[in-house]
Predict the structure.
Amino acid sequence: MKSVFVLKFRNDNYSLERGILMFVDNVKITVRSGKGGDGAVAFRHEKYVPLGGPSGGDGGRGGDIILKANEGMNTLMDFRYKRIFKAEAGQNGQIKGMYGHKADPVYIKVPTGTSVYDEATGRLIGDLVENNQELVVAKGGDGGRGNIHFANSKNQAPEVAENGEPGQEKMIKLELKLIADVGLVGFPSVGKSTLLSVATSAKPKIAAYHFTTLSPNLGMVRLDDGRDFVIADLPGLIEGASNGVGLGIQFLRHVERTRVILHLVDMDPNNGRDPYEDYLAIRNELGNYDENVLKRPEVIVPTKLDIPGSEERMAEFKEKLPDDADIFPISSIQHTGVKALMNHTSEVLSKAEPIHFDVQTDETKEYNYEPEAKAFTIEKEADHDFVVKGAKVELLLQRTNLDHQDGIMRFARQLKSMGIEDALIDAGAESGDSVTILDFTFEFI
């Protein structure tokens, strides 16, 4: 295991690992939306309104948790230091029929290209691929109704109000997949970082050993005619990367969003490797990860043509490729062919199909028939103790104001209408037995 020491700056935006800016593209965070405000039980007591009646207002809606894409960010580094995000609860209802204030939403900035997954189920919640795009990951609870809503001809002064709906809490996984027009792929030390440094103003680390690049680097290519595109230097892949070998598995996801692939192949005759075998190996890893990547336009870029003997090796390499292969040899050290390659890449990019993100969100509905799940279950824990469980009945309890007798009686009627009373009798419950729902226990009569 490599030794690591981390220096944290006070602004918590960056961290240094042996002097290198850390790139974070995979984090888990917890989000908690706000509870809805409780409805109020109140009555008008005004001098000239002798029969004022109920006047309890509704509670305000709890705050949402919303992710917002920001193209100015390119890492999830900030979430290493803050992993829990909470929204405020809505204000309770007021007297004179006044509504409580709804809570403000909590916005969380994430880089464009962030995919959001539910950690518990693994389901994709949404994909933020455009600047300022928003995604609600936890909805605030609805406010409870005040007693102004429960007056009728039989009960003109009801002491009944609803509690606010609980907020949602979930753990979500954020995965950053860099959005670049062009991706540089190839074995370690084939010259990807050197090409990026020559073609753009980016300053990636360059050295004469493998795995110099430990995180993706982005650069903007600007051509003389005004055209431009974003190019990404992805850390070196090796054989078996799609199965977790080397560093590749950490960064293969970033290839998904590139529209054109520049496949760099080393022509150095002294490196002891076969260029064609290297080419096939990288293609195999890309296909194992996502076969759609192999359908994207590919420009094969033989590199290091400044080394003696490289021309002969490239001739042998080209003979093994299909006749329609798109080949552009370069020497980044001497800048030979780099400008022509960038112009050609721009032309290929202009003809490439845009990438369509097939995202299934919460709003997507599938009309497949499924038997309705049971609304509740009853468990007998002891001779005279029963526990009622179920999302619907538990939510009903949470939204019931039990501080007033009218509210308790309404809750009892709702339990009966759901069939819980009959189910308890069928389960063997008798008068005087204890029935528990969440943390609320009552006597069965």
In short: The chain has three domains: 26-176, 180-351, 377-444.
